[in-house]
Amino acid sequence: MIRRPLRPLARILSARARGENPDAIERENRRLRQEAQRDRARVLAEGRLLMLGVAFVVAFAAIGARMTVIATAEAAEPRAAASGDAIEASRADIVDRNGRVLATNLVTHALYAQPHQMVDPARAARALAAVLPDLDPAALLRQFTEPGRRFVWIKRRLSPEQMQAVHEIGEPGLLFGPRAMRLYPNGAEAAHVLGGAGFGREGVSAAEIRGTAGVERAWDAWLRDPANGAAPLVLSLDLGVQAAVREVLGAGMRLMNAKGASAVLMDAMSGEVAALVSLPDFDPNGRPSPLVEGDPSDSPLFNRAVQGVYELGSVSKVFTAAQALELGLVGPETRINTQGPLTWGRFRIRDFRNYGPHLSVTDVIVKSSNIGTARMAMQIGAERQQAFLRGLGLLDALPVELSEAPGARPLLPRQWSEIAMMTISYGHGLSISPLHLAAGYATMVNGGTRVSPTLLRRPGPARGERVVSEATSAIIRRMLRETVTRGTASLAEVQGYAVGGKTGTADKPRPGGGYYSDRVIATFAAVFPAHAPRYVLVVTLDEPMETSGREPRRTAGWTAVPVAAEVIRRAAPLLGLRPAVEPAAADALIRVRN
User: Fold this and answer.
1) Cβ count within 10 A of residue 47
2) Per-residue pLDDT for 592 more than 60?
């Protein structure tokens, strides 16, 4: 920049020559310089004002646009920022074999507070306690006023009505976080199969759903895996059959004054479980807490059909007879010495009543002779007996799709001695679950191939290794049918359905050793139709007592059998089995009415 001098020499000399005052030239130049500086400053200020004005216009336009978007968008609660991995809240549905929903997800909201944003914490605490009576207003106020506290969980799940009531409190520090919760629309139906679910990792905008028991826990990783494309987990259960079995079993438990009950209804060919009930049960929507003391079986969470391992009594005699037949040691009409008591050292084995000196193998099963069964076991031997029962799957935990199944291992004798072999032959000394028994009976009557129970729907029969021959299986089916037509299970007859089965009544063991004299486990293992079994049903009652007669009756024939008969009467049509009349004998007379 060229700066113009205030006293130019040429003009000073010229002014002196003309007699003028040279100072006037300096004053004039100073004035012109100041005017030029003022003009430049004004131009700069005007430019800055213009830029500021443009900036304000742009800012207000952006704010107005954002307000328009917010005003027209759907209302949503503010969300707190969270660090770490995103929480995967999705979980697949669980459905029965016909696609009916057993477990699904429901969108709900959680309630939390940010105390530093609250206007009136005391009023908010009182109002929340009025909306949610399970909350303590004093405890809430302490949390809201605690120095430095910026976050408080109040309620993990809210109903829509509760959410609206909290909205109406009008406290800006009370906020909602969206989340999905697990819903079981059928309540207690199939509670022990489904198990239940709860929250894992939680954030204000999502919560992870994790299985806590049953199928939900056993298949937790699969249900949470997004790679499955939201495909449901299809169980083998039939919801209609499950409901019918539960209703009948509950009524039977009350009628027989039983402490608990269980029922397993299984496809004899595929091992698919159509119904599994354990009573008392619970609602998985509000799963109760486990017992911290006492007998775990007293809890409604205890699955008697899977976790309950019991000495099931005479129902096990079928396995002894099947092995003896398979080994060729006896035939169905072979006479067995039933003279009693049978003495082994200090032990005495007796029958329920005196059946005479001899019974056929068929009548040993039909009349349920302990002595006859023990004598067959003596011919088999302990080593072969143990191998046979292991081949049936009765000595190991079942690979069924429940989180509780691996821990439900059968209780074996410490030493498989000769007396243990004899008592195990008729159902004492070996404790198994009702599900074990159902799988064993399915193997016995389906032609002799091992069945592995499953709670998942299978495309077809899943045949395992052969355990007994088809001929032996056919003999066992006839024995079971005769047990109903002329034996200890006569009350199991259901018109139109040829039922076969075996009863079992076992004294309950005392915790300190020995057995109760007035407490039993009553079991009936049924197959139907007996000539070509499609299904196996095992009904077990814990401490039943039938009181319609002069004296209380506890045996399975009076307690478990009539309950199982009613289950078959109700469930068979739902399973698609049409009632049929058994063929008459060739020489039978048929009365015809004109």
Assistant:
1) 10
2) no
